[in-house]
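Response to reviewer comment R2.3. The reviewers asked that we include at least one raw input/output pair. We reproduce the pair for Protein-methionine-sulfoxide reductase heme-binding subunit MsrQ here without editing.
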Amino acid sequence: MTRFLSPIKVLLFIALMIPLGIIVFDGFQNNLTADPIEELLHRTGIWSLRLLLLTMLMTPMKVITGSFVFIRVRRMIGLFAFFYASLHLLIYVWLDLGLDWAHLLEDIIERTFITVGMLAWLLMLPMAITSNKRMMRKLGKTWKRIHQAIYLVICLASLHFIWLVKSDITEPLIYTGIGLSLLLFRVAHHYHGKRSKHKGSTNTG
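Raw output as returned:
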């Protein structure tokens, strides 16, 4: 299984780097529209949201197929979601605000979509830091609680996108719908698992 996963992880790493490669290429080609900072913010933000959803999709895929491959690549996808979210934040703070920390604090307090976006990133930070196996073993049950925050992150990221868009909210609503569907699947699967365990213990008794 490990030998099988190695090439998959290499290919996945390359695939997850492609959006960044396209962004860099378009930057050198001056293909980042009339407002390059806005375009950079949009692309990095949307890829972070997509990869968050893809991370959530790994558990349903494992349940449906019975393959643990999806669980073993989930960490890399989640880390890339954090990577693109961090690029998104860096572009905003550095290129858009010019490292004006007072302006940043003002935006966080006064602009709701900035508030929820920053909160989403702050929740992703401990998940990224504790994503390795050593931290998983060290933290025990606390690790699971930390990483369950992904559901709240998805909600906050979706709200960030919806409140950011000033006109057509079709695209953010599509991503929100996907996130809610994945969340409902997880809740239904958890409930079904608890019922199965209860029936098993009842039959045994």
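The first helix runs from residue 2 to 28. The CA atoms of residues 75 and 124 lie 13 Å apart. Further pairs are available on request from the corresponding author.
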